[in-house]
Write a structure and sequence with these properties.
Protein name: Fe2OG dioxygenase domain-containing protein
Organism: Oleoguttula mirabilis
Structural class: alpha+beta
CATH architecture: Sandwich
CATH superfamily: B-lactam Antibiotic, Isopenicillin N Synthase, Chain
Shape: globular
InterPro entries: DIOX_N, IPNS-like_FE2OG_OXY, IPNS-like_sf, Oxoglu/Fe-dep_dioxygenase_dom, Plant_2OG-oxidoreductases
CATH topology: Jelly Rolls
Distance between the termini: 32 Å
Bound molecules: 2-oxoglutaric acid, fe (ii) ion
Keywords: Iron, Metal-binding, Oxidoreductase
Order of helices and strands: EEHEHHEHHEEHHHHEEEEEEHEEHH
Pfam families: 2OG-FeII_Oxy, DIOX_N
Strand content: 15-25%
Strand order of the largest sheet: 3-4-12-9-14-7-6-5
């Protein structure tokens, strides 16, 4: 079946789910929630709904359940607003997902946040970089498949580079995904590692400068969040930040994810349910499709994209470091809802991960973590000693076709093991 639709950046011809893509269990039927949490939990600022919507895209429907993400403000966090800091902590413990309003959030230059934070904390500049990267991603995915395929490094044991549509798996049965993505390394762009082969488009000086700027600015947000969590956890000063230095060798990466619209009569998951492998994820969405499964709930809820905001979520490393005080929530991507359903969806992600040699185990020096760990059954005796590099490799490669699914499980419990 042929389908043409507008993309997030304008009209263009859309590719189709590949033939032979596997079959997934149908997405559960969704219904109205009585409350619309995004609206119910605004910061109370006088703000029109228009400011939060992407005017050039079909509207996000108002009759689908939306997830109860708190909306936090970068500006308020930078002003050390106590209520905002408490909300950040609660969001990281309860759901592990929140919106961050990036508008007008800028740190004064002399008030340097972190010794290694040469990424400027500037929300508006990050939003601009993200916009430019959506355009770059659009160009990247419109390269011929054969060209993109040259940069799939799976056979060399690397998760950087390209993954074609349907070449990842969603479950133990080997059901194929319905997205393509491209991962590009922070260490490469900051000159900390060898330069990886990439399409000419990404080798251009201005593309590299843009990616570097976006990585530094995203990392500055990550450091801010880590600093907040560090003090709430009662860890010795800079513990979390020192495991995630901008210039430390790590698996940090930018990812573009693209999913073509799926035929009406055959809609399956685009990206399977998972928790993120690393520490803090900064995500830009424009079209809906991202869903989270809130704790103790059986109902997947959409995360409504908000203009001027990024979505922040925590990954497995934060769960391991804190004996589960912090939450890394399961999420997945489905076809965009309602009128958005005919459009190609693209998202932009920055994954911050612990430095390669960091062992993913309960951190020392915090009474709160020690107490939580002691209260857990089994204690530390059966804690697996695995470095961040090994963990990410095992999780990422296990989700490629032909990989070891059973070993790719994260901290989300038994749910995804079958
Ligand atoms: O596309 C999205 O909104 C989410 C992507 C995601 O969860 C991931 O790449 O880990
Ligand atoms: Fe994710």
């Amino acid at each position: 079946m042929t389908q043409t639709a507008s993309t997030q950046l304008g009209a263009s011809a859309i590719a189709h789910p590949q033939d032979g893509v596997g079959v997934l269990a149908p997405v559960p039927k969704l219904h109205h929630l009585e409350e619309t949490p995004v609206q119910a939990r605004t910061n109370g600022d006088d703000e029109g709904a228009d400011e939060l919507t992407f005017q050039d895209l079909p509207p996000f429907p108002d009759d689908v359940p939306t997830a109860p993400l708190l909306r936090l403000s970068l500006k308020k966090l930078l002003d050390r607003d106590p209520q905002e800091e408490t909300s950040l902590w609660r969001a990281c413990c309860d759901l592990g997902f929140f919106y961050l309003d990036l508008r007008s959030g800028e740190q004064s230059k002399r008030d340097s946040f972190h010794e290694d934070g040469d990424g400027e904390l500037n929300g508006d500049a990050l939003l601009k970089d993200a916009d430019a990267l959506f355009h770059l991603g659009e160009q990247l995915f419109s390269l011929p498949d054969a060209e993109k395929q040259k940069y799939d490094f799976k056979d060399q044991g690397s998760y950087f580079g390209y993954k074609g549509l349907g070449s990842g798996v969603l479950d133990s049965k080997g059901t194929r995904d319905r997205n393509e993505f491209y991962n590009t390394s922070k260490d490469d762009h900051l000159g900390l590692s060898e330069r990886l082969p990439a399409p000419d488009l990404l080798q251009k000086d201005d593309s590299r400068a843009l990616l570097k700027s976006y990585m530094q600015r995203s990392h500055a947000i990550v450091s801010l969040i880590l600093g907040q969590l560090n003090s709430r956890l009662g860890l010795p000063s800079e513990t979390l930040q020192s495991l995630h230095r901008l210039r430390g060798a790590s698996g940090d990466q930018v990812r573009w994810v693209r999913s073509p619209p799926q035929p009406m009569d055959d809609r399956k998951l685009a990206l399977g349910e998972h928790s993120d492998f690393g520490s803090v994820t900064i995500l830009f969405n424009r079209l809906g499709g991202l869903q989270v499964l809130p704790p103790n709930s059986e109902e997947w809820c959409y995360v409504k994209p908000l203009r001027g905001h990024c979505i922040v979520n925590l990954g497995d490393a934060m769960v391991k470091f804190t004996a589960g005080i912090l939450r890394s929530n399961i999420h997945r991507v489905v076809n965009p809802p309602g009128e958005q359903g005919g459009s190609t969806r693209m998202s932009l992600v920055y994954f911050a991960r612990p430095e390669d040699e960091v062992v993913l185990k309960v951190l020392e020096g915090s009474e709160m973590i020690r107490d939580k760990h002691a209260a857990q059954q089994g204690g530390s005796a059966d804690e697996e000693q695995i470095t961040a590099k090994e963990w990410i490799m095992r999780r990422a490669m296990g989700r490629r076709a032909g990989g070891d699914w059973a070993k790719s499980a994260g901290t989300e419990g038994e749910r995804l093991k079958q």
